[in-house]
Amino acid sequence: MADEEIRAIEQQADNLAGRVIIALAAENAARTGAIRHLTLDDLDLANRRITLAGRRQRLGDLSHRVLRRWLRHRRATWPHTTNPHVLISDKTAHGTNPISQQFVTSRMNRTGCSVDRIRKDRILHEALAGGADPLHLSLVFGISHSTAARYSAVAEHLLSDELDRASQSS
What we know:
By secondary structure, the chain is mainly alpha-helical. Helices cover 60% and strands 6% of the residues. The chain is built from eight helices and three strands. It has a three-stranded antiparallel beta sheet with strand order 1-2-3, with no helix packed on it. A hairpin with a 4-residue loop joins strand 1 (43-44) and strand 2. The radius of gyration is 18 Å and the shape is elongated.
Protein backbone atom coordinates (compact mmCIF):
# COMPACT_ATOMS: atom_id res chain seq x y z
CA MET A 1 0.00 0.00 0.00
CA ALA A 2 1.22 3.45 -0.83
CA ASP A 3 1.33 6.19 1.80
CA GLU A 4 -1.70 7.80 0.16
CA GLU A 5 -3.69 4.57 0.52
CA ILE A 6 -2.75 4.28 4.18
CA ARG A 7 -3.82 7.89 4.78
CA ALA A 8 -7.12 7.20 3.02
CA ILE A 9 -7.78 4.12 5.15
CA GLU A 10 -6.80 6.02 8.29
CA GLN A 11 -9.31 8.74 7.41
CA GLN A 12 -12.03 6.10 6.95
CA ALA A 13 -11.52 4.87 10.50
CA ASP A 14 -14.37 6.41 12.41
CA ASN A 15 -12.58 6.57 15.75
CA LEU A 16 -9.16 6.92 17.30
CA ALA A 17 -8.87 3.25 18.26
CA GLY A 18 -9.23 2.31 14.59
CA ARG A 19 -6.56 4.82 13.66
CA VAL A 20 -4.17 3.37 16.24
CA ILE A 21 -4.72 -0.10 14.82
CA ILE A 22 -4.09 1.09 11.26
CA ALA A 23 -1.00 3.10 12.22
CA LEU A 24 0.64 0.20 14.06
CA ALA A 25 -0.08 -2.22 11.22
CA ALA A 26 1.11 0.25 8.58
CA GLU A 27 4.32 1.47 10.21
CA ASN A 28 5.39 -1.50 12.32
CA ALA A 29 3.71 -4.38 10.51
CA ALA A 30 2.09 -5.26 13.83
CA ARG A 31 -0.11 -8.32 14.03
CA THR A 32 -3.57 -8.11 15.56
CA GLY A 33 -2.47 -10.00 18.68
CA ALA A 34 0.44 -7.64 19.28
CA ILE A 35 -1.88 -4.64 18.93
CA ARG A 36 -4.46 -6.14 21.30
CA HIS A 37 -1.86 -6.97 23.96
CA LEU A 38 0.14 -3.74 23.73
CA THR A 39 0.49 -2.22 27.21
CA LEU A 40 1.26 1.25 28.41
CA ASP A 41 4.67 -0.02 29.58
CA ASP A 42 5.44 -0.96 25.95
CA LEU A 43 5.33 2.71 24.91
CA ASP A 44 8.16 5.17 25.20
CA LEU A 45 6.68 8.16 23.42
CA ALA A 46 9.40 10.55 24.57
CA ASN A 47 12.06 8.47 22.79
CA ARG A 48 9.71 7.36 20.00
CA ARG A 49 10.10 3.66 20.79
CA ILE A 50 7.56 0.86 21.08
CA THR A 51 7.80 -2.78 22.08
CA LEU A 52 5.54 -4.99 19.98
CA ALA A 53 5.42 -8.72 20.63
CA GLY A 54 8.63 -8.42 22.64
CA ARG A 55 10.53 -6.54 19.92
CA ARG A 56 11.67 -2.97 20.60
CA GLN A 57 11.18 -0.79 17.51
CA ARG A 58 11.20 2.80 16.37
CA LEU A 59 7.84 4.54 16.56
CA GLY A 60 6.99 6.30 13.29
CA ASP A 61 5.43 9.73 12.97
CA LEU A 62 1.93 8.45 12.19
CA SER A 63 1.88 6.04 15.14
CA HIS A 64 3.40 8.62 17.49
CA ARG A 65 0.81 11.23 16.56
CA VAL A 66 -2.17 8.85 16.73
CA LEU A 67 -1.04 7.23 19.98
CA ARG A 68 -0.64 10.60 21.68
CA ARG A 69 -4.19 11.54 20.63
CA TRP A 70 -5.53 8.14 21.72
CA LEU A 71 -3.86 8.35 25.15
CA ARG A 72 -5.37 11.81 25.76
CA HIS A 73 -8.77 10.39 24.80
CA ARG A 74 -8.22 7.31 26.99
CA ARG A 75 -7.35 9.44 30.04
CA ALA A 76 -10.36 11.70 29.51
CA THR A 77 -12.81 8.85 28.89
CA TRP A 78 -11.63 6.36 31.52
CA PRO A 79 -9.63 8.42 34.05
CA HIS A 80 -9.73 5.78 36.79
CA THR A 81 -9.09 2.63 34.75
CA THR A 82 -6.43 0.24 35.94
CA ASN A 83 -6.34 -1.63 32.64
CA PRO A 84 -2.69 -1.75 31.54
CA HIS A 85 -3.46 -2.14 27.83
CA VAL A 86 -3.11 0.77 25.44
CA LEU A 87 -6.34 0.05 23.60
CA ILE A 88 -9.33 -0.38 25.86
CA SER A 89 -13.07 -0.18 25.40
CA ASP A 90 -16.14 0.39 27.52
CA LYS A 91 -16.10 -3.36 28.23
CA THR A 92 -12.41 -3.68 29.13
CA ALA A 93 -11.93 -0.36 30.96
CA HIS A 94 -13.32 -1.85 34.18
CA GLY A 95 -10.98 -4.83 34.19
CA THR A 96 -7.53 -5.80 32.99
CA ASN A 97 -8.30 -7.81 29.85
CA PRO A 98 -7.15 -6.69 26.39
CA ILE A 99 -9.63 -5.69 23.72
CA SER A 100 -11.15 -8.58 21.80
CA GLN A 101 -10.36 -9.80 18.32
CA GLN A 102 -13.89 -8.70 17.42
CA PHE A 103 -13.09 -5.14 18.58
CA VAL A 104 -10.21 -4.97 16.09
CA THR A 105 -12.11 -6.72 13.31
CA SER A 106 -15.13 -4.43 13.62
CA ARG A 107 -12.98 -1.30 13.37
CA MET A 108 -11.11 -2.66 10.36
CA ASN A 109 -14.31 -3.81 8.61
CA ARG A 110 -15.46 -0.21 8.58
CA THR A 111 -12.38 0.71 6.52
CA GLY A 112 -12.71 -2.16 4.05
CA CYS A 113 -9.22 -3.41 4.86
CA SER A 114 -7.66 -5.86 7.30
CA VAL A 115 -4.71 -5.62 9.66
CA ASP A 116 -3.17 -8.58 7.87
CA ARG A 117 -3.35 -6.89 4.45
CA ILE A 118 -1.80 -3.67 5.77
CA ARG A 119 0.90 -5.67 7.57
CA LYS A 120 1.78 -7.72 4.48
CA ASP A 121 1.88 -4.64 2.30
CA ARG A 122 4.19 -2.93 4.79
CA ILE A 123 6.64 -5.85 4.70
CA LEU A 124 6.51 -6.01 0.89
CA HIS A 125 7.09 -2.25 0.67
CA GLU A 126 10.18 -2.62 2.86
CA ALA A 127 11.39 -5.52 0.70
CA LEU A 128 11.04 -3.38 -2.42
CA ALA A 129 12.72 -0.37 -0.83
CA GLY A 130 15.50 -2.40 0.79
CA GLY A 131 16.63 -4.33 -2.26
CA ALA A 132 14.79 -7.57 -1.39
CA ASP A 133 17.20 -8.48 1.43
CA PRO A 134 15.65 -11.31 3.49
CA LEU A 135 18.03 -10.78 6.41
CA HIS A 136 16.97 -7.14 6.66
CA LEU A 137 13.28 -8.12 6.63
CA SER A 138 13.83 -10.77 9.26
CA LEU A 139 15.63 -8.34 11.56
CA VAL A 140 13.26 -5.41 11.07
CA PHE A 141 9.99 -7.31 11.42
CA GLY A 142 10.99 -10.34 13.47
CA ILE A 143 9.70 -12.73 10.82
CA SER A 144 11.16 -16.14 10.09
CA HIS A 145 13.89 -16.56 7.50
CA SER A 146 11.56 -18.56 5.25
CA THR A 147 8.87 -15.87 5.40
CA ALA A 148 11.46 -13.17 4.73
CA ALA A 149 12.76 -15.19 1.77
CA ARG A 150 9.23 -15.39 0.30
CA TYR A 151 8.76 -11.63 0.57
CA SER A 152 12.19 -11.10 -0.98
CA ALA A 153 11.37 -13.41 -3.87
CA VAL A 154 8.15 -11.51 -4.59
CA ALA A 155 10.02 -8.20 -4.38
CA GLU A 156 12.76 -9.44 -6.73
CA HIS A 157 10.11 -10.58 -9.21
CA LEU A 158 8.33 -7.21 -9.07
CA LEU A 159 11.61 -5.30 -9.38
CA SER A 160 12.75 -7.39 -12.37
CA ASP A 161 9.36 -6.89 -14.08
CA GLU A 162 9.73 -3.15 -13.55
CA LEU A 163 13.23 -3.21 -15.07
CA ASP A 164 11.99 -5.25 -18.04
CA ARG A 165 9.19 -2.75 -18.72
CA ALA A 166 11.62 0.17 -18.44
CA SER A 167 14.09 -1.40 -20.88
CA GLN A 168 11.33 -2.24 -23.37
CA SER A 169 10.03 1.32 -23.38
CA SER A 170 13.49 2.77 -24.02
